[in-house]
Amino acid sequence: MHEVGIMESAIEAVLAEARGHDATRVHNIVLRVGALSGVEPDALRLAFDAAVKGTPAAGSRLDIESVPARGRCPDCDLEFDVDSDFIFTCPKCARISGELVQGRELELARIEMS
Amino acid sequence: MSPPLQAPPAPSGARATRTVELRLSLLECNDRQAVANRRRFRELGMVALNLVSSPGSGKTTLLERTLSEFGAATRCAAVVGDLATDNDARRLGRSGFPVAQITTGSACHLDAGMVARAVDGLDLAGARVLFIENVGNLVCPASFDLGEKVRVVLLSAAEGEDKPLKYPPIFKSAHVVLLTKIDVAGVLGFDLEAAAENVRRIAPQARLIRLSARTGDGIKEWYDLLGSLVTKGEG
């Protein structure tokens, strides 16, 4: 359950941004979470309420944008979506590779505040 | 015709709602410390390896033997993480090398800051290899860069052959995968070929070594790899 710590640091960053923009309320927080980030969106949601409690972000909406895994074939240079089994099989030449183009993202994408 | 709709003027003191694009890494703090660790290890001329696996896959036993045999010619150091006890540090400390225990309390993984603080307390003069034994866990350590040069994931013959398929993030991030406890594979009905094939499918980038830290089977290949990492570090 490292999601608790990750959510706490996300909210810290959100509150720092809000202060920097002279905002007193945060309405919406958007995270981007890659399929191979090792972080579980449901666990992030569980940690969210406790992390925002008593802060200017209390009552805000959490949105989590999933970033699917994409691979690149080192032979064909083709970029392709990876199935949920995470075996990076090139759809053109069937070569299995480990090259990841996206899917490890773990970002605070944007916030809405006033 | 009705007049065009207009937003009412904001009452004084109220602020307009605005959206700010940030794209900040949630692991920014850890990643920054990992970069600092990596630089420090390089300046010390030391290769750092992060050993990750389920609990009980043989990390400590492998390190005990490695410190005694590989360590005979190459000075090593170790940092070992567990939720509680310093049992592992005491086991590895018998080697005479600098060893630090990190007890994480309830944290399920090591982070770069914990490693930096643990290393601060060690005399690393002359050490060429730093082994970082992570908390036994195949999930959370995948997200945390510790500043290591090489990530080593262990899978023992006492586990399921399909573990790589079940835990893709950690295996995807591995430079090296060690199939351990191969001496008991037969008695446990563990299919080494199936396990190796699963590693190759999920982690084709990883170097795969089969070994037993108890019998010493395959362990030379591990030492050769460590030796080549040390030599490369000198280049």
Please give a structural write-up.
- The complex is a heterodimer of chains A (114) and B (235).
- Chain A starts with a helix and ends with a strand.
- Chain A has helices at 3-20, 41-52; strands at residues 26-34, 61-67, 70-72, 79-81, 88-89, 96-97, 100-102, 106-113.
- Chain A has a domain at 3-69 and 103-113: hypothetical protein PF0899 fold (2-Layer Sandwich), CATH 3.30.2320.50.
- With 114 residues, chain A is α+β, with helices and mostly antiparallel strands.
- The mean pLDDT of chain A is 94.
- In chain A, strand 5 (88-89) and strand 6 form a beta hairpin.
- Helices cover 26% and strands 32% of the residues of chain A.
- In chain A, strands 2-1-8 form a 3-stranded mixed sheet, with helices on one face. A 3-stranded antiparallel sheet of chain A has the order 4-3-7, with no helix packed on it.
- Chain B has 235 residues and is α/β, with parallel strands linked by helices.
- Chain B has a single domain (28-234), classed as Rossmann fold (3-Layer(aba) Sandwich), CATH 3.40.50.300.
- Chain B is built from 9 helices and 8 strands.
- Chain B has helices at 28-43, 59-69, 87-93, 112-120, 163-166, 168-172, 185-188, 192-202, 219-234, and strands spanning 18-25, 47-52, 76-82, 99-103, 129-133, 150-156, 176-180, 207-210.
- Chain B has a 7-stranded parallel sheet, sandwiched between helices.
- In chain B, strand 3 (76-82), helix 3 and strand 4 (99-103) form a beta-alpha-beta unit.
- The longest helix of chain B is centred in the N-terminal third of the chain and has 16 residues, at 28-43.
- Chains A and B meet through helix 1, strand 1, strand 6 and strand 8 of A and strand 1, helix 6 and helix 8 of B.
